[in-house]
Automatic annotation (TrEMBL):
Residues 30-127 form the AMP-dependent synthetase/ligase domain. It holds the Pfam family AMP-binding. InterPro entries: AMP-dep_synth/lig_dom. It comes from Timema podura (Walking stick). The keyword Ribosomal protein does not apply. It catalyses: a medium-chain fatty acid + ATP + CoA = a medium-chain fatty acyl-CoA + AMP + diphosphate; octanoate + ATP + CoA = octanoyl-CoA + AMP + diphosphate. Coiled coil: none annotated. Acyl-CoA synthases catalyze the initial reaction in fatty acid metabolism, by forming a thioester with CoA. Has some preference toward medium-chain substrates. Plays a role in adipocyte differentiation. Belongs to the ATP-dependent AMP-binding enzyme family. Keywords: Ligase. This is Medium-chain acyl-CoA ligase ACSF2, mitochondrial.
Amino acid sequence: FKEWAYPRPSYWFETGSEPLLSITLGQLIEWAAEEYADKEALVSVYENVRWTFKEAKEKADRLAAGFLSLGLNPGDVIAVWGFNSSYFYHTSLAAARAGLILAKVDPSYQAPELRHCLNKVGAKLLVAA
């Protein structure tokens, strides 16, 4: 390592005048659904999908309830194996609403790589999106 080889740091840290919010991502989703209820939260042209913030939260809450009914608990890890899509977005919001940790898995992984990844993160559920 030579300092001259790295002219800029890889991140910038500066204390701001506004403190960070002390809310969870799940709580932020609820706030956004109240604040921006009828505004579009997701537009996927190739899937022909449009959801408002309110619709996205309602869909996420239903899926989150399903995750919890499977016996998952807040803090458990779930893995999502697939490409970016409305399903990935939906699953991400649901995980946050249920208090679950989401691990994104590369959709190009073959069985041995997938198995290694799931074991490494301790995933209790795999969602193929």
